[in-house]
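Handout, section B. The chain below has 51 residues.
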Amino acid sequence: MLILADRHTVTVTDSHTGEVLATHTVDPDRLYWRNQQRSPGRWPGLPQQQR
């Protein structure tokens, strides 16, 4: 895993394949930064048919 960070974004990639696993926009006023690679409103860890 490779994590790239600057003042505004954090990007997590697979170090072997280069696949982007997560992208987060940094907002210092919030405690949680949504993964921009995923759809909003999903339940973490649940397969699509269980929602």
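Note. The two ends are 29 Å apart (CA to CA). Compare this with the example in section A.
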